[in-house]
């Protein structure tokens, strides 16, 4: 098991460069199996999810290589095969092989995905999309069987009952290779969806409407990559470093960002009283003075992302009044709270699931456990603010989605080590 040891309460400064978005990358990689040619991506984050996706590709005779942000994959000799359930369970995005295999082979057998334990995460809308395209979907235990070989994969109308990032992308992946036209209504509008569509269109797909509520797809027979696709910057990683900079920075420049994607986040920082310098592709966070408590409600894009709510929480401990967070996407996403309390934080959950964060200026180091990726990010920021040493166990969750995190933090003068080993016996809650 990986652990992170943090010597906290050092002021941080310098520059940090954000890499490609995890939530784009983990859909782009499964999407490559729709291509009839080799594919290359740039700015791919070095995160555990990518390495697990490589194992899944390998099981289908799809070799891939990855170094310095360049990811090359050759799906030309792909074979249908049983996907390794251990790797499938290690990430959420393995569910994109459902849509991608359905597009490629008109059938897919995939076990239920893993990913963060942040409350119920059903896939009924994904199944609704596959059925609208003519597939029969059955479940047996842990495995989902999706089959459109009997009547063919055909364009159709998909009306989502709720906005889902994953279901939108899965519908796009399958419909790209379906026979005829597909209309998808009530889709998610996240920038990562626009990125996937721009990649597919660059290979010859015919998809319009990404970034709006409705997407139209004219199915095509083949796709060929002719250019290197650069993954968009990770707005969640960027938000995490912006929060860190505001909490304990003496001037930090966060580079390679798309400020428009960060608007809901930077607007909250401004409301707190921070004076950000927002440039074309970077944001400078000066040393912050007094900051005020705020109310945050998470919503689908262009709202405040659920994946930001835990990383921003430690910053709110520095405010001069209470803050309230309401997570409408994952109301049970609260694995950070119990652990933050161990560090002296004053934070509680009200009956209506709202999280109340009170000024807590005397955080101290503790042994805490990262229950999921963003809970881990929250503990990391808190550990850097706290007096003394913090040990974060189960840090693999952080490494699922934060590229070169120890090196990036060291570049800001933080003292963080990655350790492998057993959890100290007294530490498990
Ligand atoms: C790999 C990836 O991109 N993960 C992101 C993706 O997850 P993911 O794609 O799993 O999240 P969704 O957008 O699908 O989930 C949104 C909401 O819809 C519900 N729902 C979803 C699908 C479904 O079939 N039925 C259903 O009820 C979910 O329980 C949740 O309450 O979007 C989330 C919401 O922005 C982010 O937190 C995750 O980081
Ligand atoms: C919930 C997240 O990831 P996943 O959907 O991959 O579990 C996240 O990135 O915050």
UniProtKB/TrEMBL annotation:
Q: From its record, what is one biological process in GO terms?
A: regulation of cell shape
Q: Which residues form the Enolpyruvate transferase domain?
A: 8-409
Q: Which GO terms describe its molecular function?
A: UDP-N-acetylglucosamine 1-carboxyvinyltransferase activity
- Which compartments does it reside in? Cytoplasm
Q: Which SUPFAM superfamilies would you find in this protein's record?
A: EPT/RTPC-like (SSF55205)
Q: Where does UDP-N-acetyl-alpha-D-glucosamine bind?
A: 92, 121-125, 307, 329
Give the metabolic or biological pathway: Cell wall biogenesis; peptidoglycan biosynthesis
Would you tell me the Gene Ontology cellular component terms?
cytoplasm
Known EC number(s)? 2.5.1.7
Listed binding positions for phosphoenolpyruvate are: 22-23
* Family in the record: Belongs to the EPSP synthase family. MurA subfamily.
From the Swiss-Prot or TrEMBL record, give the protein name.
UDP-N-acetylglucosamine 1-carboxyvinyltransferase
């Amino acid at each position: 098991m990986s652990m992170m040891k943090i010597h906290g309460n050092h002021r941080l400064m310098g520059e940090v460069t954000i890499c490609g978005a995890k939530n784009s990358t983990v859909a782009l990689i499964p999407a490559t199996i729709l291509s009839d040619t080799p594919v290359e991506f740039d700015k791919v984050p070095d995160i555990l999810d990518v390495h697990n996706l490589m194992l899944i590709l390998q099981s289908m005779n799809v070799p891939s290589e990855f170094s310095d942000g360049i990811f090359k994959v050759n799906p030309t000799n792909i074979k249908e095969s049983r996907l390794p359930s251990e790797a499938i369970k290690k990430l959420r995005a393995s569910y994109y092989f459902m849509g991608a295999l359905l597009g490629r082979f008109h059938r897919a057998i995939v076990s239920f995905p893993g990913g963060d334990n942040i409350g119920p995460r059903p896939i009924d809308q994904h199944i609704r999309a596959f059925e609208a395209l003519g597939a029969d979907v059955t479940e047996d235990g842990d495995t989902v069987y999706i089959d459109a070989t009997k009547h063919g994969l055909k364009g159709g109308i998909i009306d989502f009952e709720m906005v889902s990032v994953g279901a939108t992308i899965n519908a796009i992946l399958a419909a790209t290779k379906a026979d005829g036209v597909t209309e998808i209504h009530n889709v998610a509008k996240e920038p990562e969806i626009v990125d996937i569509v721009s990649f597919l269109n660059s290979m010859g797909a015919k998809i319009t409407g990404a970034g709006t509520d409705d997407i139209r797809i004219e199915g095509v027979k083949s796709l060929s990559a002719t250019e290197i696709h650069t993954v968009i910057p990770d707005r969640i990683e960027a938000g995490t470093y912006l929060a860190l900079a505001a909490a304990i920075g003496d001037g930090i420049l966060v580079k390679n960002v798309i400020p428009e994607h960060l608007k809901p986040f930077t607007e909250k920082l401004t409301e707190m009283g921070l004076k950000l310098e927002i440039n074309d592709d970077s944001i400078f966070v000066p040393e912050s003075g007094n900051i005020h408590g705020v109310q945050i409600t998470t919503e689908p894009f262009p709202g405040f992302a659920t994946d930001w709510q835990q990383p921003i929480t430690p910053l709110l401990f520095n405010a001069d009044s209470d803050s309230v967070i309401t997570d409408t996407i994952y109301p049970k996403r609260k694995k950070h709270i119990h652990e933050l309390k161990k560090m002296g934080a004053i934070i509680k959950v009200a009956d209506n699931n709202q999280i109340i964060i009170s000024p807590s200026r005397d955080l101290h180091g503790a042994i805490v456990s990262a229950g999921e990726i963003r809970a881990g990010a929250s503990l990391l920021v808190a550990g850097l603010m706290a007096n003394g040493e913090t040990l974060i166990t189960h840090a693999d969750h952080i490494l699922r989605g934060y590229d070169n995190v120890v090196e990036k933090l060291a570049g800001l003068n933080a003292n963080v080590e990655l350790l492998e080993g057993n959890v100290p016996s007294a530490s498990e809650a």
